[in-house]
Amino acid sequence: MAADGTPLYAPNGKPRVTSEPLGANFVIDGYAVTYTAGVTWKFLLGFDPDGGLTLYHLRYVLPPSRAHPQGKEEQYLFRAYIPDFGTDYSASNL
Question: 52 is in which domain, residue-wise?
């Protein structure tokens, strides 16, 4: 990158255009993410210097029923690391 902040190489290729005519199927509220893809998933995002991107409290919401009119939330995973996503391998504490 040049001193003035411009990239050294010009971008090439076609620009990417994203279209969601029905709206986004996810909501981000701070660290909390709600993602609907047939089933609604809920999780918290975090970052660990050694583990990389971390998903916490991953759960899904079952469809509504008589017993659970709002849908029943089921725990799926407590913590999941997505390694190699911004990790610092030069850390001396590894």
Answer: 26-82
